[in-house]
Amino acid sequence: MAICTFLGKYILYLFNLLCLISSVGILSIAFIINQKLYKWSNFISTDFITTPQILLAIGVGLLIISIIGLCGVLRDIGWLLTLFSVLLTIVLIGELILSGFVYQMRNEIKDYALNQMNHTISGYNKTGYEASTQTWNLIQSDIECCGIYGPEDWKLVTPNKLPTSCCYAIPLDGFCTETESYKDGCFKKFESILQENSEIIIWTAIGFALVQLFAVFLACCRKCSLHKEYETV
């Protein structure tokens, strides 16, 4: 019995460490995605923009909860283990809700991005469209694309030349032409990046939630074990 109690305690300790490591992982992933999406905010709905920020909040919460759990395990404090279990369950539910929200939003995010591209391309380099012009330049140079579906999309906007961000090599005369431009359209590449980031958020949330679920189970078992030990004494 003593061996089982000892093993149970230190298995829970290891899972608390996993939760601590996972909180750092969540924070890192959320920060990277947030930095990437913020630059393209004109093409992304505000609902999806806030998703990495919610993930950051979950990561911070999980970090604090993991420290509470470690203190409860190492010092065998029953009420800390109970608090750890309750708070971790709340975070776990939040992660599952977030993953479901992102999964449902995927098609809406894609449609919103396409609508924004169609709406803003005609205002490129015009007064009142400074923010969207900057976003177009950033996205074309960052992911090496040109126009919505290809360089031909710019013919009605800038008939004699393409935006310099469309080209991988600018001639000495400073004019970007279709010869030097990226051939892929931005929407297809942008859609692929959004899909990739959505899947990262979904599987990160689900994967860490499973680890946390087992940690809650172990914490409850340890709490019951402590209660029995106190009754025996």
Automatic annotation (TrEMBL):
Cellular component GO terms held in the UniProt record: plasma membrane
Chief site of localization: membrane
Keywords: Disulfide bond, Membrane, Transmembrane, Transmembrane helix
Similarity comment: Belongs to the tetraspanin (TM4SF) family.
Listed Pfam families: Tetraspanin
Organism taxonomic ancestry: Eukaryota, Metazoa, Ecdysozoa, Arthropoda, Hexapoda
Gene3D superfamilies: Tetraspanin
Transmembrane segments: 12-33, 53-74, 81-103, 200-221
Disulphides: 146-166
Membrane topology reported for the UniProt record: Multi-pass membrane protein
Protein name: Tetraspanin
Database matches in InterPro entries: Tetraspanin/Peripherin (IPR018499), Tetraspanin_animals (IPR000301), Tetraspanin_EC2_sf (IPR008952)
Source organism per UniProt: Schizaphis graminum (Green bug aphid)
SUPFAM superfamilies: Tetraspanin
PANTHER family registered for this protein in UniProt: TETRASPANIN
